[in-house]
Amino acid sequence: MTERPDAGPASGFVNGVFVFPVRVYYEDTDAAGMVYYANYLKFAERARTEMLRALGWGQAALMVDKRLAFVVRRCVADYVRPARLDDNLSLTTRLAALRGAALDVEQIVQRDDVDLVRLDVTVACVNLEMRAARIPPRLRAALQDLGRMNERKG
Hints:
Layout: E1 12-14, E2 17-23, H1 39-54, H2 59-66, E3 68-79, E4 88-98, E5 102-111, E6 114-127, H3 137-153
């Protein structure tokens, strides 16, 4: 049996874009051996969560300390090509827009620099009563810095 290499990028920021590696496990696939479509949403959620953590804002601490959470308000997915068992994938997350209580991100799932899935996601900041709430100023500043890095890159 031939093992595939454990290659793949480490998670972190590259020019204002967060890169998050994912390996496809058996549990991620359907009967045809391809990643089940809904699992891409799970991968994307993990990438957004790790992006916030890398900015110093863990989701659990945000709920306890600020009584705030992020919820998906809108998600559009374009499934271009399938991923398969044991593939090393890379998810990129780029801030597209920042508003008072929401942010838009573009997320792309790739294998070997080939786009597999493109997602446009709107994430709303809410209080624990599920009402819209402003993004905390320090987090907003960190997100604005990411946006500026993207502008310089483009």
